[in-house]
Amino acid sequence: MTQGDEKVSREQYRLRTYGGPQGRPLQPCIPSDPVSVTGAAPGCTLSTDRAIIQFDADAFYAQVEENRNPRLKGVPLAVTQKYLVVTCNQAARRLGVTKLQGVTEAKLQVPSLVLVNGEDLTPYRQASKSIFSVLARFGRAERLGMDEVFVDVTAGVQERLQKGFLCSTYNGHIHTAEMALKQETKHRPMDLRAAKTFGVPAPEAESPFSSTPSASWEASLKIASHIAAEARAAVKAETGFRTSAGISCSKMLAKLVSGMHKPDDQTVILPSHAPAFVATLPVRAIPGIGWKMDQELSALGITSTGDLRNIPLAALTQRFGERNAKYMYYACRGEDTTPVVQSGAPKSITVEDSFKSCTTFPSALHVLQILAPDLIARLHEDHQEHTRWPSTMTLKWRQKKQGWSRSSASIPMPAQWSTSKEQQAEAIVQASLSILRKNLAQPFSLTLLNIGATSFLASVPAQRIVPKALRSFLKAGQGSSRHKSTSSQQVAGHAGEDMRVAALVAIAARRDYGAHPKGQPLAKSHERALNETSRACVAASSGGSSLPDMQASPADDDGWGAESAARAAYTAPHMPMSSSTHAGSSSMLAGSGFLASSTSMGTEGLQSRANAALNAQQISHLSADVLQLPMQSRHDPLHSLSSSVAPPRHLLRQANMLEHNSSDLHGSLNRMSLPANQAQEQLTEQRQHEIQQCHQASRGVPEAAPVSNGDMGEEPICKGAWGAGRPSGPTSNVDSALVKLSKLQQASTSSCREAGTDREFVQGTVQSSAEPSDENAISAPLGAQGASCQSVVLSELERLERMKVSGQHQAAPQWVSQSPEDVSADMLLARKLQDEELRWHQMHSRVSAAQTLKRKLKKETTLDAFLKKPALGRK
DNA sequence: TGGCGCTAG
DNA sequence: CTTTCTAGCGCCA
Questions:
Q1: Given this structure, which CATH class describes domain A6-26+37-340?
Q2: Where are the alpha helices (DSSP H) in A730-819?
Q3: Which of A236, A411, A650, A705 has the fewest CB atoms within 10 Å around its CB?
Q4: Residue pair A544/A568 in contact by the 8 Å Cβ criterion
Q5: Alpha carbon distance A69, A629 (integer Å)
Q6: Which of A409-413, A617-621, A786-790 has the lowest mean pLDDT?
Q7: Under a CB-based contact definition with an 8 Å cutoff, are residues A380 and A458 in contact?
Q8: Among the CATH numbers 3.30.420.10, 3.30.1490.100, 3.60.21.10, 3.40.50.300, which is that of A347-461?
Q9: Distance of C1' in C12 from CA in A340, Å
Q10: Which residues lie within the region annotated Disordered (predicted)?
């Protein structure tokens, strides 16, 4: 359904489905208020005094990515973490991609699938926040994860009622107990979807409720449904996100129906229908009843809420405790009185990473050294917003032998707010390590590490004497003290440079141990190649060519090609971007179609810097004042801003952009235009070169983590980055990044080279020897792809080395100096990659088809039996 | 309050 | 049961 005719056709659909002039009356049963249940649950009443809406952003991560890069709209898109598809957009779903599917499998099934790495949650957190702030205007709002929000709109409804505001109809779909449901995903009986049942009216006679004319809750819910529509429209207008909503008198009911008519639509469930509706569901569908409780209930022979209703409250209490029992007892009857609790600042902030195996303390240290700065950066972000600092730190870990349970230990937060970020991170690393040493003996086998901060206390208030724009400006100027410029170009350029260098470090760091916890690992090179070919597809499609979609089923009328690309372009929302943003990061990419996402990636950071730069003239006189702030201001976040270490948040946020830039513009081009054997030769050459480079680069790098401050006194220590304490004069980002990068490169290369002897991590990239031979057919190009990315990192390393020698810190990175000709050559390459991919998938098409078939068959067996209704009033 | 389990997206 | 990277709550000691 396209945007334009949405309103009209929805109304038509509603009339067709639920009646109207030609169908049955819009309000089939008119129960009393509160609803007294005369049917299955004698004496039970439903509370109808509240109006609650549950909002749910459709395919949230995918939508965020689509908004970041509008070219992705309409293209099958999957957001990945490690080797998994964590979510995918509608286009991908139609082609059979599912949540938590393996990346390899998904890509095999849908060759045109575009993969976007979603391991950095920053953009999602921000999007989530903006959605929440819109919805919170409509009433008390409670977040549930990143993409769901409950809003209690009772007050708003009352207000409108008092003003004499009345709605004659419900806005959106009305779900009744009689409507058929369908199962969307195999393992999730809690995701309810309405089956399309056009023109099958539910029989009024079946209603177990007394019919008294009109009820106050009806008027309320009608208004609530209109509020829901307004709120969704506001969200769409202000943030660009499509949402679905469920409207009812309780959180449970609202949640149960919110997804019924996904995407971008809303559903009302009348309390009069609730008990009968809930009775049709498996217990697992009740929010709050998870896998464990479901298992326990199953053991008792209880699988449906109907079964559950036969169990007396006392028996449930004995088995599940009073709280759970009560909730279950009432929930299965359609009643839920849990309040909507206003959400505020998060109560805990954690970072974690999983890996296949980590067996020694040095390797654990390695992980901690990546996680800790990440946590610190988030804590600083949090501090800016809430002026608080955690008093407790918790380390959690998961061991292979202990299955999925996690152990944990807490200590008073070792990082003090008054110290520098580097000191804070180091404190956390050391504390974490000592916790591990206390609790583990080598060799262990960790598969996950999590560092968390809790028990936040109000911190020293941030001094608000500095305008926000000035903060941004100073932030933009960080690390470039020797180039005191007020020109927007230069500032933006420097910001970009810092971020790119930082991102390189992040890529290298994560790649180093980002192995796969279990199952068939997806080689990094493989993964990267998949990403590249995907991007090539997008580039080609937005360049106007249409790619036949081999996997599209005949019924799928929305396969992608020129038409859908055009439509995507037409419906694309406009990302607010200043022209200087482009100037700073991606001018040469404009209009190339390639790197489409890089133009919109990291806009927050870049844009604030660019905007700040525009104000530079205006505020430059202020800056002098600020620089003379008394020492006490070291508690001000400003100090952390002037620290030269780039926040890890920026690192990962920029990772995708870098991958786009580096792999697309460099590696792929020269290799793919070579014959295969030449490419192979070049590959081995490259690898030898890399190893040499690593060795060279690693010489002279200090052993220990180079965070050392001779001065531990009261003076604020904010200038040091990773390279602080090294003897060679003032340190810069470039310098410290270089050190880090060298070390990381060395570590990863040596662990690859001397597999089995020195390695601390069991690398997940070793292909099983039992792989079918056709794996080999693709290994050459994929390997080459992977090598290219690494070589770009290495060449960047070289460049930095040269820069350090010559002192030309403002030299542009290689990939920014692409000429227009090069870009059009890249377009040609895109076509080539696309052809390559097509050929590859022709080889696999039969396998793929078989798998799809199997999937479809499986899909239709599991829950349908459960959900198929006894056709109450139907003949 | 810490540690763990369960639930959620 | 299963995986990601989170976040919140309740129970128990």
A1: alpha beta
A2: 733-753, 774-806
A3: A411
A4: no
A5: 41
A6: A617-621
A7: no
A8: 3.30.1490.100
A9: 27
A10: 476-495, 515-561
Find all residues with CB under 8 Å of A768, minimum gap 6, and list them.
Answer: A520
Residue pLDDT, tens place only, A571-622: 222 222 222 222 222 222 222 222 222 222 333 333 333 333 323 222 222 2
**CA→C1' distance for A291 and B6 (Å):** 9
Q: Round to a whole number and report the distance in Å from the CA of A821 to the C1' of C6.
A: 44
SS (H, E, C) A239-271: HCCCEEEEEECCHHHHHHHHCCCCCCCEEEECC
Closest CA to C6 C1' — which residue?
A350
For chain A, the structural domain boundaries read 6-26+37-340, 347-461, 470-550+575-703+731-763+778-841
Instruction: Give the nucleotide at minimum CA-to-C1' distance from A145.
Output: B9
Dihedral (Cα; A289, A295, A296, A298), 10-degree rounding: 100
* Burial state string for A343-366 with b = 16 or more CB within 10 A and e = fewer than 16: beeeeebebbbbbbbbbebebbbb
Catalytic site positions of A: 148
Eight-state DSSP code of residue A592 = -
Which nucleotide is closest, CA of A100 to its C1'?
A: C3
Average pLDDT on A827-854 reads: 37
Question: Helix or strand or coil: residue A640?
Answer: helix
- Nucleotides of chain B touched by protein CB (<7 A): 1-9
Instruction: For residues A587 and A581, give the distance between their C-alpha atoms in angstroms, rounded to a whole number.
Output: 9
Chain C bases near protein CB atoms (7 A cut-off): 1-12
Helices (H), A19-171: 60-68, 90-94, 103-109, 122-135, 154-162
Residue type present at position A134: V
- Convert the pLDDT of each residue in A179-208 to its tens digit: 888 876 666 778 888 887 544 444 433 344
Cβ within 7 Å of nucleic strand C, residues: A 81-82, 84, 86, 100, 119, 121, 125, 145, 187, 291-292, 321-323, 341, 346-354, 404, 448, 450, 452, 517-518
Q: What is the spatial distance, in angstroms and rounded to an integer, between the CA atom of A560 and the C1' atom of C10?
A: 48
Contact A96, A855 (CB under 8 A): yes
Footprint of strand B on the protein (CB under 7 A): A 60, 144-148, 190, 255, 286-294, 392, 394, 405-410, 412, 455
AA identity, residue A81? Q
User: What torsion, rounded to 10 degrees, do the Cα atoms A490, A493, A498, A502 define?
Assistant: 180
